[in-house]
Each structure stands twice: as C-alpha cells, then as structure tokens.
C-alpha cells in the first residue's frame, strides 16, 4: 500500500497531536495531584485547648511550688516579664513574619489561623522558664494549654528577646569603680584579706550530642573537636568569670569540648581586652587580677596556684598560698553549680537538631537569667530544690543527666563535676608558646609573687579539716 505525501503529513500531524495531548494531560494530572497533596498537608488537625495563664498556674501551685518550678518568685517573674515585654513583642512579630514567608525569603504565604487564640507573651515566657528549668515539653503544653511545637517556638522567642535586651548584657566591666566593687566582695570572703582578686575564671563543658558532619563543617571544625576526652562527652568549652556571689561577669563560647581552657580563654574577647590593659591598679595596691586554676598561664592579670606542692613539706608555704587562692577561685565552680542546678536543661545533652549557633545563644541567655535570679534573691547562693516533675524528666532522659556533688570542704554549693575540669591540659597549646611564656616569667614579679608573700608574712596556714562527700 502506498501513501501520498499529503497523507503521510496528516498521519504524522495526528500522531504528534495525540502525543502533545497526552503530555499536557499528564502534566495537568501531576500538577493537580501535587496541589491536592499540598492542601492535605496544609490541613492542620486542631485540638481545642483552653489557655492557662501564669496567674492561674500560680494559684494552682502556690508560692513555694511556683518558686521551685519557675526558679524564681511570682513577683520576680513579673518583673522579668516587664523588662522583656518590648523585646518579646518584637521577637513574636519577627517569628510571625518568618512564618508568613514560609521560612524563607521571597515566599507568598499567609499566616495560619490560630483556632485556640493567640499565645500571650507571659505564657510564652512561663513555658520557656519551665523548659529551662528542665521541664518536659509535654508537661508544659498541658500546664499552659499550648501545642508541643509552640513550647519550642516560645523557647527561641524568649532566647532572642533576652539576648537583645541591653539591661541583661554580660561583659566584664572596664571601670576602676566596678572592678573595685568586685574585689571588695572577694576580700570579704578571704580570710587573709586578699584585696586584688577581681574575678574567678574557669571552664565548663556545655554537653551536646555528637554534631552532624554538616553542622561541624558549618562551625569550621572537625567533629572530633567537640569531644572532651576527659569527660567522654561531646560539647562546647564555655569560659566564664564570676564574682563572689556567683554572678557571671563574662562568658565566651568559641571552642569545642576538646579545647583546653587555656586555648579557649585566649580565643575570647576578654583575653584581648586583658592583654590591652583592662585591669586597673587600685592606688598603691596591686593591680586587679583574675584567679584561675592551673589550666591557665600565670600572667600579670591572672594569678594561678603553684603546681606539685601538695604533700611536699619543703613547699608548705606554697601549699598554704594554694589553699587561700582556692578559697576565692572556687567561687566560679559554685557559680557553675548554681547555674546548672537552676537550669536543668544544662544537666542533659542538648538536642541533636540544634545548631552550634543556637546552643551558644541558649547558654548565654541562661547565664543572663542566672544573674537576674541572683539579683532578685535575698540569699544569692540559695537555689530552690529541683521540681520533682523536672527531676523525673531529667533522670529518664535518653542521654542521661548530670548529678551535682560536693567533694570540696570549701564548697557550700554542689557542683557539676562531670562537666568541669575537662580542659585542664595544654595538649593543644604549642610548646614554643609555653617556652616563650616561661622566658617572660624569668625575673618578672607577677601578682602571684606578691600574694604568696602576703600569705607567708601573715603566717597563714592551710587548716586541717575532714573532707565530706554528698550528691544530689
């Protein structure tokens, strides 16, 4: 059978038309199906909830239980709320704008409806404080009548508000008057009357689950840099300076848990300020200094203990100095104890899905709230007992939880021994840097020399006492 050229052209045109129609039909079907799936996913199963205000929670708990659950009194909570309210409103608005854009720039989405009504700033603050204290999000959502996701959303709204509040800013003071005030607090706690201690410094491990390879690359370091070998935990090295009452005067989180305290301190902004002459000299008295342990280098602005003197009768005078030095330095360990006891979220590993940036923001916010609670308390070192529901939640955490212990007779506050002293090594400090430091020390009279002479001339001796042991 033979076909004319016109017949062939008509046949080919018909076939191509069928193919085009089939392709168009398939594309339309795919688009309709995709739109149907998107609509189904957008349908939110809403459960009717009755919002419970902070006042109603207080009335059901009473003042004593409320203070245990929220780590502060009812009046202190509302003072905190009044300070943060403008920043909370801004943070809530920013979060709404983020949702409106679908979590990314350039979106064209409308805000989802709020069937149960908006969540007030006070409820968001209350839910967040309960989360910081170590409360289970499931308990919190039932207490305030909010969803699980809104509990976590509230946490980051409050963290953002706290960190943007200038009143809560943490930075070591640079005026002589403020440094003298800090030193006066340590002098009152010092038996020999040491006058130039203007802060105690140490490091604490912020416990995390092992970060993903992607998150480690984003932080610019290898995953192993987060592992603290001495504590067998992943985390971040947090450097902090405290006053005698336990307030955090300076905080820096810039290194992984594998870093030594020395290197983590030298990476901080405080170290640069100290190198540039931050500490003042109080008249004819010695220059103000920080008190740190042997994880740091003895310098013009840092007084450290003598090494390898315990039990050596020929170095009894140096051992006496170490005792009275520890009497003040240990205040920062007590500050860590109060911080972790107050905010139970630090006694558990940070969730795996949190970025390093968010973990740092969370810890800084907790330090600021810690200072607020101390300022509000008549007895700064007294932290309310952990709420029994929070203790149950922490004890059943998948990663485990950190206990608090009192192993040193000089400590009145239980401390997280599983999180401190992990950076007491110089493994990551170059040998040439240590040698250069020793050469600089030759013939130089650092503050430690004068402090040692003060103890020796006053015939101050280490008291003999029995060691106790307790845990919580």
How much beta, percentage-wise?
Answer: 5-15%
Domain tally: 2
Q: First CA to last CA: what distance?
A: 98 Å
The averaged pLDDT comes out at 87
Radius of gyration equals 29 Å
Q: Would you count the extended β strands for me?
A: 8
Q: Total number of helical segments?
A: 16
Outline type:
globular
- Unreliable spans: 103-111
Largest sheet: 6 strands, mixed
SSE pattern: HHHHHHHHEHEEEHHEEHHHEHHE
Description:
- By secondary structure, this protein is α/β, with parallel strands linked by helices.
- It has two domains: 54-168, no CATH class; 176-375 and 426-458, no CATH class.
- Helices cover 49% and strands 9% of the residues.
- It is built from 16 helices and eight strands.
- It has helices at residues 5-42, 54-61, 63-70, 74-100, 121-132, 137-144, 148-163, 176-189, 213-219, 261-266, 269-275, 316-342, 356-376, 388-395, 431-441, 447-457, and strands at 197-208, 227-228, 233-242, 248-256, 289-291, 302-303, 405-406, 470-471.
- Strands 1, 2, 3, 4, 5 and 6 form a six-stranded mixed sheet that branches. A two-stranded antiparallel sheet has the order 7-8.
- A hairpin with a 4-residue loop joins strand 2 (227-228) and strand 3.
- Helix 4 (74-100) packs across helix 7 and helix 12 (316-342) packs across helix 16.
- The longest helix is centred in the N-terminal third of the chain and has 38 residues, at 5-42.
- It starts with a helix and ends with a strand.
- The model is unreliable at 103-111 (pLDDT under 50).
């Amino acid at each position: 059978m033979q076909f004319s050229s016109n017949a062939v052209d008509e046949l080919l045109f018909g076939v191509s038309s069928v193919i085009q129609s089939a392709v168009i039909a398939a594309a339309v079907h795919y688009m309709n199906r995709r739109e149907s799936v998107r609509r189904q996913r957008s349908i939110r199963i809403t459960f009717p909830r009755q919002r419970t205000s902070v006042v109603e929670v207080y009335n059901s708990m009473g003042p004593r239980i409320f203070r245990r659950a929220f780590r502060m009194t009812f009046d202190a909570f509302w003072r905190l709320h009044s300070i943060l309210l403008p920043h909370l409103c801004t943070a809530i608005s920013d979060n709404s704008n983020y949702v409106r854009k679908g979590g990314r720039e350039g979106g064209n989405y409308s805000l989802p409806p709020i069937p149960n009504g908006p969540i007030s700033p006070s409820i968001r603050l209350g839910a967040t404080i309960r989360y910081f204290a170590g409360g289970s999000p499931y308990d919190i959502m039932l207490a305030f009548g909010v969803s699980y996701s809104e509990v976590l959303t509230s946490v980051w709204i409050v963290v953002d508000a706290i960190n943007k509040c200038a009143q809560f800013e943490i930075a070591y003071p640079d005026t002589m008057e403020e440094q003298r005030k800090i030193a006066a607090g340590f002098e009152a706690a010092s038996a020999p009357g040491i006058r130039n201690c203007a802060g105690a410094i140490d490091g604490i491990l912020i416990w995390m689950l092992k970060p993903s390879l992607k998150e480690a690359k984003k932080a610019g370091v290898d995953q192993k840099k987060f592992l603290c070998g001495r504590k067998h935990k992943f985390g971040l090295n947090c450097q902090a300076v405290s006053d005698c009452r336990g307030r955090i005067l300076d905080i820096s989180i810039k290194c992984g848990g594998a870093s030594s305290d020395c290197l983590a301190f030298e990476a901080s902004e405080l170290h640069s300020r100290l190198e540039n002459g931050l500490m003042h000299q109080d008249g004819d008295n010695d220059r103000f200094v920080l008190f740190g342990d042997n994880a740091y280098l003895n310098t013009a602005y840092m007084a450290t203990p003598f090494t390898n003197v315990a039990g050596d009768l020929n170095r009894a005078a140096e051992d006496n100095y170490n005792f009275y030095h520890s009497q003040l330095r240990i205040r920062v360990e007590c500050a860590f104890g109060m911080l972790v006891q107050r905010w139970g979220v630090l006694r558990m590993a940070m969730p795996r899905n949190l970025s390093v940036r968010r973990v740092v923001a969370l810890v800084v916010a907790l330090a600021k709230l810690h200072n607020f609670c101390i300022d509000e308390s008549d007895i700064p070192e007294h932290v309310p007992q952990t709420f029994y529901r929070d203790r149950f939640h922490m004890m059943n955490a998948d990663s485990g939880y950190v206990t608090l212990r009192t192993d040193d007779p000089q400590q009145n506050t239980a401390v997280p021994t599983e999180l401190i002293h992990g950076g007491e090594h110089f493994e990551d400090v170059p040998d040439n840097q240590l040698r250069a430091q020793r050469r600089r020390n030759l013939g130089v009279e650092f503050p430690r020399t004068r402090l040692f002479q003060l103890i020796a001339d006053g015939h101050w001796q280490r008291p003999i006492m029995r060691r106790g042991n307790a845990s919580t």
